[in-house]
Design a protein that fits this description.
The chain is mainly alpha-helical and 148 residues long. It has a domain of 93 residues. It has six helices and two strands, in the order H-E-H-H-H-H-E-H. The chain is globular.
């Protein structure tokens, strides 16, 4: 029973973070990404989360060669496609002017989500600051050695 509450709490926390990220994007790109009513914002972020959970892994697998070739930058295109798909599914309730604005929106949503996940502790990413002596240069040789 406790595990179900914990999972539900995590789901709500992630949904809220996603909704805040979409809201920040709508505010920053006002006029280019917009929603009709507040409930449409929550619906759009929920739909985006569902698409990210189920469709995104399939798209990542299909685009694996492009992801490798572009060193992961093609992920932005996949995220923009999913955001534009939310626009297509919701019609006038959640609008994105063009695929270019969807790309910019996907970048902003990603950055805000990462920052909020780190701040709330829901992310696996950790930031650490180490103080002390800078690493010393090797005294013998010209640099690092890679053993094969």
């Amino acid at each position: 029973m406790n595990e179900k509450k914990s999972r539900f709490k995590q789901f709500l926390q992630r949904w809220l973070i996603n909704t805040l990220a979409v809201l920040v994007t709508v505010v920053l790109l006002r006029g280019h990404i917009r929603y009709a009513e507040t409930v449409d914002l929550f619906t759009a972020s929920l739909l985006l989360g569902i698409l990210n959970a189920f469709i995104r892994p399939i798209m990542m697998l299909m685009a694996l060669p492009l992801l490798i070739f572009t060193l992961g930058l093609f992920t932005l295109v996949i995220n923009a496609t999913l955001l534009y798909l939310v626009h297509w599914l919701m019609g006038a309730h959640f609008e994105v002017d063009s695929f270019g604005w969807a790309c910019l929106g996907a970048v902003i949503i990603s950055l805000v989500s990462v920052m909020l996940n780190i701040l709330t502790g829901t992310s696996n990413a950790r930031v650490s600051v180490q103080r002390g002596q800078p690493p010393t240069k090797p005294k013998d040789g010209d640099g690092p050695v890679i053993d094969v």
